[in-house]
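Hi Y.,

Following your request, here is the sequence exactly as I used it, all 85 residues.
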Amino acid sequence: MQSRKIKLSYEYTITGNTYYVQGDFDRAMEMYQKSLKINSEVGHKLGMAYTYEDIGRVYRKLGQKNKAQVAEEKASKLFKLLKTK
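Below is the corresponding structure, written out as tokens. Let me know if you'd prefer a different format.
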């Protein structure tokens, strides 16, 4: 069950990346938020960290620097916790 949820989260991220590349930042954010929700529910901290990075990227493109910084800080804390990156 958990592996299916993680796979679904990954699919949302891939879809979000596609929207991001196409410049559809609202839809990208929607997909990243869905991914983050699943990762949070199952405790997949690495998935959460990468998703927070993606969310930060979208906020930067939208000119929302403060929100971007918050998302990036959350990603950084998770990566440090996991000792990755």
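The first helix runs from residue 2 to 21.

Thanks again,
Q.
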